[in-house]
Structures are given as C-alpha cells and as structure tokens.
Automatic annotation (TrEMBL):
Name used for this protein in its record: ATP-binding cassette domain-containing protein
CDD domains: ABC_Carb_Monos_I
SUPFAM superfamilies: P-loop containing nucleoside triphosphate hydrolases
Classification via InterPro entries: AAA+_ATPase (IPR003593), ABC_carbohydrate_import_ATPase (IPR050107), ABC_transporter-like_ATP-bd (IPR003439), ABC_transporter-like_CS (IPR017871), P-loop_NTPase (IPR027417)
Keyword terms, alphabetized: ATP-binding, Nucleotide-binding
Ranges for domain ABC transporter: 20-264
One MF term in the entry's GO annotations: ATP binding
Pfam family, one: ABC_tran
Coiled-coil region list: none
Length: 266
C-alpha cells in the first residue's frame, strides 16, 4: 500500500468566517480522554464529515458542539462570536439542531407531534396563551408541508404514531425535525447506521437538500462510500485528536482509512 502524507485542507481556501468553529477542545471522563485538544471549522454551505474508529471522540466532539456535553477546555464560536452551551436547548435556540446516535423520538406521539416536540404550536388567543391548548391541525399542516419540501415521501400520514413506523421512517422523522428547525447548522451522528439502502439514500439526499438551502451539515458516519458521496471536507478523528482534514478530491477512501487507523500519519 502506498503511504501518502495527508495534508490539512487549507482553511483559507474557504470563504469568510466559519459558521461554527471549535478551538482546542478538551473533554475528559475521569481518566478517559474523550477529546485531546480538538479544533474544527464548519463553513457556510458545506457538508463536513467526521470519521474515525470507535472511541476516537466523534460523538464527544459533536456533543460539545451541541451543548450535550460541556468541554473542560477550549472555545466554541458561532458566526465568530464565542458561545458557551450549558445544555442542548442553548444550542437549539441558536439554530443548531442535532440528531444524536441514540435516536430521540417519542414513540407514542404521532409524526407531526414529534416534529414539533418542545416547540408545540398553540391555539391563537386565550385558548393557547392561558389554557395552553395545542393547535394540532396547524402542526399537522405544517409538518406535512415541511416533509414535502424536504422530499420525504415515505411519511404520507403525519397522524400515525411513530411507534408504528419502520426504523428508517423513524430516522426520517428525527432528521426532518433537525432539518426543519436547524436554521444555522444540522448535526447528524451516524444517521444511516440502522437504515437500508433506499432509506440511507433518502437521508443522503436530505443532506444535500440542506446544503443547497445554505445550511451546513456535520455528518458523523462509518460508511466511507456515503462520506465520499456527500462530504465537501472530511475531519478525521484518531485517539481523541484531529489527525487530518482532507477532501474527497485530495484523498482516496484508502488514504482516509490509513489516516484513521494510524497506518499513515496525519
Ligand atoms: N459518558 C462517558 N463516560 C465515560 N467515558 C466516555 C463517555 N462518553 C465517551 N466516553 C469515552 O470517550 C472516548 C470517546 O468516545 P466517543 O466520543 O463516544 O467516540 P466515538 O463516537 O468516536 O466512537 C471513548 O474512550 C469513550 O469510551
Ligand atoms: Mg459515536
């Protein structure tokens, strides 16, 4: 095998200030080092993939970026302004939506209610403001419209409880929720891991739809063909550190795996 020396993709080739920028993040769990000084830049209109072996720190990295974990050290900037997320709600309020690896949908609720979970629409006037009555009809209309905008055709009926859906359809609900509300950044941790070929392709299409809407996406995936199909740049995590940032043009899948496993030095 040819060992190539990976080069960091030049951040200066990207336009302007990163939408999301992390500098030297450190996160430890007791004696375990989850992140060991990791930096990351996400630019407008790009899909940034994060790859790496199990335990390399991928999930910890996105949890720090999305308020699910608080880093011990390091800084995070959104549009050039420092942010300090204490909980996921802080990041959501600033337009960062996440689909975590452990799927978070409420099985007993229908598709529309899941899409608006935590952001329920209420009836106008005193019914909504005082009695907190939900406007189910409006949520169903908006949910159906959003799913059709996103080109999600597998969820025809938004009144079906999510527990009656297939794994792929549930994942589509979670991704659609992120896509619907992620006005700044959408983060997907292994979104296609449990999906079949057709469902995976729908998620990949959704990612490119988001990019074309101008919303940058962070995609964690083990699936090299998926990563090379949709990513503009690829951040490679290894042993809690960023080993390299490459592009599908500058490097092959074999190169990427070599950097991931340490066969080639980043
Ligand atoms: N809540 C936690 N408690 C203890 N160790 C953790 C916790 N979360 C992650 N880790 C450890 O941090 C390291 C990075 O984990 P993670 O970010 O989940 O890796 P990846 O997503 O790349 O598989 C691993 O060694 C993992 O065991
Ligand atoms: Mg993970």
């Amino acid at each position: 095998m040819t060992i190539t020396t990976p080069t960091e993709a030049e951040p200066t080739t990207q336009n302007g200030t990163p939408v999301l920028k992390a500098t030297k993040l450190v996160k430890t769990y007791g004696h375990v080092v989850g992140l060991d000084g990791v930096s990351l830049e996400l630019y407008a209109g790009e899909v940034l993939a994060i790859i790496g072996d199990n335990g390399a720190g991928k999930s910890t990295l996105v949890k720090c970026l999305t308020g699910a974990e608080i880093p011990d050290e390091g800084t995070i900037e959104l549009d050039g302004h420092p942010v300090h997320f204490r909980r996921p709600q802080d990041a959501r309020e600033l337009g960062i939506e996440t689909v975590y690896q452990s799927l978070a949908v409420s099985p007993a609720l229908d598709v529309a209610a899941n899409l608006f979970l935590g952001r329920e629409l209420r009836k106008p006037g005193i019914l909504g403001s005082v009695f907190r009555v939900l406007d189910r009809k409006l949520m169903r209309e908006r949910a159906a419209a959003e799913l059709s905008t996103l080109g999600i055709s597998t969820l025809q009926d938004v009144t079906v409880p999510v527990e009656n859906l297939s794994g792929g359809q549930r994942q589509a609900v979670a991704v659609a929720r992120a896509a619907a509300f992620g006005s700044k950044v959408v983060v997907l941790d292994e979104p296609t891991a449990a999906l079949g070929v057709r469902e995976s392709n729908q998620v990949l299409e959704l990612i490119t739809t988001l990019r074309s809407r101008g919303v940058p996406v962070i995609l964690i995936s083990h699936n090299m063909p998926h990563v090379f199909q949709v990513a503009d740049r690829i951040h490679i995590q290894r042993l809690g550190k960023r080993a390299a940032t490459i592009t599908p043009k500058s490097h092959s899948m074999t190169d990427a795996v070599a950097i991931m496993t340490g066969a080639s030095v980043g």
